[in-house]
Structures are given as structure tokens and as C-alpha cells.
Write a structure and sequence with these properties.
By secondary structure, this protein is mainly α. 82% of the residues lie in helices and 2% in strands.
Length: 255
């Protein structure tokens, strides 16, 4: 019973990130936007990482397979994932050439971070009590910690910064864009900003304040808020794409 209750918060994260990844992947397949690809990569990382966490609890954290699942969880979810979420935000507002340069740099950092996590020494007594927590302190301090803090910081700053900049620009533009009120687009950016802050706060509270019992609940709330923001933004995109064919069709049929 206790094991089942401990699996509920991660399960919520699995469902939310899985649905989120499915939506963004569908958008990427239909529109081929680079930022949708990078967001999809990030969300798939979060999805796989949380599945690995649940698998670790089911097989036993200190078992051989359990330690393997823990490293996968920590490498993807703890170290690398936030930076790719931020990469999607950067690609949303930057030129393709700059985005490609950032992707190349991020690929190198991600590989280094993953190597450090896979090579780090595990504190087995801490790992045995990981259930219900993010696993803070389970890896002995080393180079992986520097890379994790760096990638997490870059990711949160990118997502939150782009959301704030976009929201500020919307306030200074006309009252409506593409059939959607500017206030609705602004709300999308506000939700994305709050979601990014919640996800970043979950790890910060666990690492620096020792608040670990509500980590998964905060993460679930952060993903849900981010999901709402992306859905609001994509609703505007769908409306814009439905307007364009009408204009093109009217232009073609004119004598």
C-alpha cells in the first residue's frame, strides 16, 4: 500500500509529460518547427526519466537494475532535460543559424553531463530511502553536480526569460493578433513562465532546503501549468493557420 501511494505522484508526472509530448510531437509532424522538436525531446526525456524512477522503486532501488534505472532517471530528468526545454524556447525566438549553434553546444554539454552522472559514485544508504523523494544527495559530490546546476539554470532562465520577453512584447502590440486577443497570448506566456519556475523550484527546495516530500507534487503542478500555457499558445497557432488558407483561396479566385 505504501509503495502504491509513493508511485502516485510520479505516475501523475508520467501521464502529464506523456500527454504533453504527444501533443507537441503532433504539432512538429504537422508544422516542422524546430522549437517543437526540441520541446518534444525534452518532454520525452522527462517521460522516460519518470518511468525509470518508477521502475527503480518496483525492482528495488539498491538492486543492480535499480541502480541502473536511478542513473537513467537522474541523467535525463535531473541533469539534461531542463536545458532542452530551454532550447525549445530559444529556438522559438531566434534565427535558425543561432539555434543550430546552441544545439551543437548543448549536445556536447549533455553528453558530458550524462557521462559524469553514469560515472558518479552512488551513496547506497541514501538510495535505499529514495522512495517519494527526488534522490538529492544520492550521488556523491563530483563534476556531475556542476554540470547539473549549469544545465538546470540555463534551462529555467531560457524558458522563463523567453516567456517574459514574449509577454512584454504582446503588451506593447495591437489589441489582437491572428483573430486571438493579445491578452490570451499573454496568459499563455504567463502559464509557461509559472510552470518553468515551479519545476525549477522543486529541485531547488529539495537540494538547498531539504524539502523533498513534495518534490513530485510540485513537478506535476509545474508540468500541468506548462501544458496549459502551450495549449493556449497552440490555439492561437491553429487559428492563424485556418485564416491563411482562406486568404490565399480568395486571392486565387479573383479575376
Amino acid at each position: 500500500m505504501n509503495t502504491f501511494l509513493l508511485l502516485v505522484p510520479p505516475l501523475i508526472n508520467v501521464l502529464v509529460t506523456g500527454a504533453f509530448a504527444f501533443v507537441i510531437l503532433r504539432q512538429y509532424i504537422g508544422r516542422r518547427r524546430s522549437y517543437q522538436l526540441y520541446w518534444s525531446v525534452s518532454l520525452l526525456m522527462a517521460f522516460i526519466a519518470t518511468l525509470a524512477y518508477m521502475a527503480m522503486l518496483l525492482v528495488g532501488p539498491t538492486s543492480v537494475s535499480g541502480t541502473y534505472f536511478f542513473r537513467v532517471y537522474y541523467a535525463l530528468g535531473g541533469a539534461i532535460m531542463p536545458s532542452w526545454l530551454g532550447m525549445g524556447s530559444i529556438a522559438l525566438i531566434s534565427k535558425p543559424r543561432f539555434s543550430r549553434t546552441c544545439v551543437g553546444f548543448l549536445l556536447l554539454l549533455s553528453l558530458i553531463a550524462a557521462t559524469f552522472v553514469l560515472d558518479a559514485t552512488i551513496n547506497m544508504p541514501m538510495l535505499s530511502h529514495i522512495a517519494g523523494t527526488p534522490g538529492t544527495g544520492t550521488l556523491n559530490p563530483g563534476p556531475w553536480l556542476v554540470m547539473t546546476i549549469l544545465l538546470n539554470t540555463l534551462g529555467v532562465v531560457a524558458v522563463a526569460g523567453v516567456a517574459l520577453i514574449s509577454g512584454w512584447k504582446m503588451l506593447r502590440r495591437q489589441a489582437s493578433m491572428g483573430g486571438t486577443k493579445t491578452s490570451n497570448i499573454l496568459w499563455a506566456n504567463i502559464f509557461i513562465f509559472i510552470g518553468a519556475i515551479l519545476n525549477g523550484a522543486a529541485g531547488t527546495l529539495a537540494r538547498f532546503l531539504g524539502i523533498v516530500s513534495i518534490f513530485w507534487l510540485i513537478m506535476a503542478l509545474g508540468w500541468i501549468v506548462l501544458f496549459i500555457g502551450v495549449l493556449l499558445a497552440s490555439r492561437r497557432s491553429r487559428q492563424a493557420t485556418t485564416v491563411m488558407p482562406k486568404r490565399t483561396s480568395t486571392h486565387v479566385t479573383q479575376p
